[in-house]
Amino acid sequence: MSLLEIRHLTKIFAGGTVALTDVHLAVDRGELLVLAGTNGSGKTVLARHLNGLLLPTSGEVLLEGAPIAGRLPEVRRQVGLVFQNSDNQIVGETVAADVAFGPENLGLPPAEVRERVAEALAQVDLAALAEARPQLLSGGQKRKLAIAGVLAMRPKLIVLDEPFTGLDYPGVVQILRQLLRLREQGHSLIIVTHELEKILAHADRMAVLSAGRLVASGAPGALLGLLEEYGIKRPYGEERPVATMTWLS
Q1: CATH of the domain at 91
Q2: Nearest one of 60, 73, 135, 54 to 98, comparing CA atoms
Q3: Which residue range forms the structural domain that includes residue 182?
Q4: Which of 71, 119, 193, 214 is found 20 to 30 A from 60 (Cα to Cα)?
């Protein structure tokens, strides 16, 4: 059984804008999946369906084989979403207080909250900045703080929306190292991005969205020749046999 499965998901916003059409995709445990597409392809809209921030017009999302509809509080503990703009996710007056926000809202005992905060900050190398003001952090550190806030909820799946946007080279390196560390620790990851050169070499699989449709899914190397057809900048690398690729349109 897949950890998460999207079944024939369609999203039509009020006014008739069709954002997603019949998307079907599964994510396995421990997998690092890259979800690629140009701006406006539907990547962020799809990501926000994975923990119920948006609800589909038709179709469904399943977590561990059960639909997420009707159990969103539980699902949001299991599927963590890191937004593109980290400032939108930071609410605490200190780094530690920000990470504590989620566990405190679960009603956990103070001792367990402190344990989760310390564990999450250690995982992202921010323990030394526990009492710092989040506003004074660098872009890369803010992104790591947002990841720590998600980790404190102890999710099974972490979805990161454009995690490299706005970061300088040191910030990109910080976040890439963090993502690879999370993968080594057994987390399932979905990386939503158009900046494939930063992550694709480490991905288990890639899925490509175009105009709200999932057009291909498969081994990253097998999809390289397809990317430019859908307006996505192709990173350097060798193609693999097309037999490892699944065509969806």
Answers
A1: 3.40.50.300
A2: 135
A3: 30-44+72-204+216-247
A4: 193
Q: Across the 249 residues of the chain, what is the mean pLDDT of every consecutive 10-residue run? A: 96 97 96 96 97 97 96 94 91 96 93 97 95 95 94 95 90 90 93 93 96 96 93 71 47
Do 57 and 10 contact (CB within 8 A), yes or no? yes
Separation between Cα atoms, residue 91 and residue 159, nearest integer Å? 19
CA pair distance 227, 82, nearest whole angstrom: 25
- Helices and strands (H and E) in the chain: how many: 7, 11
Does 22 fall in a domain? no
Hey, what are 74's tokens?
């539980």
**Do 74 and 106 meet the contact criterion of CB atoms below 8 Å apart?**
no
Domain assignment of residue 52, yes or no: no
Q: What angle do CA 114, 115, 116 make, to 5 degrees?
A: 95
Mark residue 83 as left, alpha or beta (left: phi above 0; alpha: psi -120 to 50; beta: remaining): beta
Angle at 44 between CA 192 and CA 180, to 5 degrees: 20
Q: Are 234 and 226 in contact (CB under 8 A)?
A: no
pLDDT at 1: 85
Instruction: Give the number of domains in the chain.
Output: 1
Residue 246 has a pLDDT of 53
Could you give the strand order of the β-sheet that contains 32-36, starting from the edge strand earlier in sequence? 79-82, 157-161, 188-193, 32-36, 205-210, 213-218, 245-247
C-alpha distances in angstroms, 181 versus 113, 174, 175, 211? 23, 11, 10, 33
Spatial CA neighbour of 227 closest among 203, 204, 210: 210
Structure tokens at 100: 């504590």
- Residue 4 counted as domain residue: no
